[in-house]
From TrEMBL:
Enzymatic class: lyase
Swiss-Prot/TrEMBL keywords: Lyase, Metal-binding, Zinc
Pfam families according to UniProt: Pro_CA
Protein name: Carbonic anhydrase
Cofactor(s) listed in the protein's UniProt record: Zn(2+)
Function: Catalyzes the reversible hydration of carbon dioxide to form bicarbonate.
Organism this protein belongs to: Streptomyces cellulosae
UniProt keyword annotation of Metal-binding present: yes
Catalysed reactions, as listed in the record: hydrogencarbonate + H(+) = CO2 + H2O
UniProt EC number: 4.2.1.1
SUPFAM superfamilies documented for this protein: beta-carbonic anhydrase, cab (SSF53056)
Similarity field: Belongs to the beta-class carbonic anhydrase family.
Superkingdom in the source lineage: Bacteria
């Protein structure tokens, strides 16, 4: 913890770099990814403060849209699209994902009931090779399911129909740093 504290102490010693941020934000991209500490959106994309609007959830899960029972995740997505006017949404899964791995393997999650119940939103349940520690197939299938889930949000469907929004499916390899994107024409993940 101490190195983090030390950096936080010196971070604010460059106010001229941050003054413009007080005027507001206008990110062009909503980046939905996992809470995993090895996944750092700004590091992966090179984004500076104000350039990415981030949503981090266990397993980069996009919950079903239900306006009568809003979730924090749905509110974040709605704000990004309707208020900030993002033009792109990236759903980025990653190798070695504990959440997707637990689903692919069928792990017993009774000791972590909140995690277990949250992961029920990952429908359909991702499939993949349980013996593969990267769970690449499972994660990639899961990312595509989350992109499909986003299409069920009415405000996203509307923006897609008006060509005002683009959805992207990415897969980040924590062990190599490589980023792959889904190519719809070949239905495969390829290097960016």
């Amino acid at each position: 913890m101490q190195p983090l504290i030390d950096n936080a102490r010196t971070f604010g010693q460059r106010p001229e770099e941050f003054a413009k941020l007080a005027e507001g934000q206008s990110p062009q991209v909503l980046f939905i990814t996992c809470s995993d500490s090895r996944v750092v959106p700004a590091l992966i994309t090179g984004a500076r403060p104000g350039e990415l609007f981030e949503l981090r959830t266990a397993g980069n899960i996009v919950p079903p849209y239900a306006s009568e029972h809003p979730t924090s995740e749905a509110a974040t997505i709605e704000y990004a699209v309707e208020v900030l006017g993002v033009r792109d949404i990236v759903v980025c899964g990653h190798s070695h994902c504990g959440a997707v791995g637990a689903l692919v393997r069928g792990d017993d999650l009774t000791a972590v009931p909140a995690v277990r119940d949250w992961l029920t939103h990952a429908t359909p349940c991702p499939t993949g090779t349980a013996e593969d520690p990267t769970v690449a197939d499972g994660v990639q299938n899961h990312v595509l399911a989350q992109v499909l889930r986003l299409r069920s949000y009415p405000f996203i469907d509307k923006r897609l129909a008006q060509d005002e929004l683009t959805l992207h499916a990415w897969y980040y390899e924590v062990h190599t740093g490589s980023v792959l994107t889904h190519d719809a024409s070949s239905d495969t993940f390829r290097a960016l």
